[in-house]
Specification:
- By secondary structure, the protein is mostly beta strands.
- It has a domain of about 120 residues: 3-layer Sandwich (Rieske Iron-sulfur Protein).
- The strands form three sheets. It has a four-stranded mixed beta sheet with strand order 11-1-2-12.
Length: about 180
C-alpha cells in the first residue's frame, strides 16, 4: 500500500481518473475535514504509552518483522528520493521515501523468487521508478522490476504502514526509530 497525496499520485500516474466526486453527499472532498488536527499536539483519545521521542503527529512508516517493529520518519528522508538499505530483526530491507513527495515504502531485499539483492540506490526524475539495484535493474514504487535483467520480478512485501508517530509509540512501546 502507498499512502501519499493526490498530487504525488498524479505525478506517478498522470493518466489516473477519478470515478466520480458526485457521491450523493454534500461534502467538501477537496478539503481536510479535521481542522488543525494534523498540526496540533492534541489527541482525541488517551494513550496507554505517550512516547515523546518524536512529535506526536509526525508521520512515520512502520515496519513489522516477526514481532518487532521499527519506524522510519518520513521527515527524515531527503526532499528527493532516498533509499535506505537496512537490516532489521535478521531481515534485509530496502526502504524508499521522500519528505517532499510525502511517501515511504518498504520491501524485503529479496525477490519473490527468493534471491537476495543488495545495494539499491535512488533514482530521481523517473517516477514511478524510484531505485536501481547493483545489477542495473530499475524498480518502481511498488517493488516491481520494470527495466533491466530482472524485469518482471518483484521484491517481497514486508508488513508496513504509514501512521502518526503516537500510534506506533502506543502499540509498540520502545519501538526502534531509524536514525536514532
Amino acid at each position: 500500500m502507498l499512502e501519499t497525496t493526490w498530487n504525488m499520485w498524479k505525478k506517478l500516474y498522470p493518466e489516473t481518473l477519478v470515478l466520480s466526486s458526485h457521491t450523493g453527499f454534500a461534502r467538501p472532498y477537496g478539503t481536510y475535514p479535521y481542522g488543525d488536527y494534523k498540526e496540533s499536539d492534541r489527541l482525541i483519545f488517551p494513550l496507554s504509552n505517550d512516547d515523546r521521542r518524536l512529535p506526536r503527529k509526525e508521520r512515520v512508516l512502520g515496519v513489522l518483522v516477526g514481532e518487532k517493529a521499527k519506524v522510519y520518519p518520513i521527515a527524515g528522508f531527503s526532499p528527493g528520493i532516498t533509499v535506505v538499505n537496512d537490516t532489521f530483526n535478521n531481515t534485509s530491507l530496502v526502504v524508499v521515501g521522500s519528505m517532499a513527495r510525502n511517501f515511504a515504502v518498504a520491501f524485503e531485499s529479496t525477490t519473490i523468487q527468493g534471491e537476495e539483492l543488495h545495494s539499491f540506490t535512488a533514482l530521481e526524475n523517473e517516477l514511478p521508478v524510484v531505485m536501481v539495484d547493483a545489477g542495473g535493474t530499475k524498480w518502481d514504487i511498488f517493488g516491481r522490476a520494470v527495466e533491466g535483467p530482472r524485469r518482471g520480478e518483484e521484491l517481497q512485501s514486508v508488513r508496513s504502514f504509514t501512521a502518526y508517530w503516537f500510534a506506533w509509540g502506543a502499540f509498540y512501546p520502545g519501538v526502534e526509530i531509524h536514525g536514532q
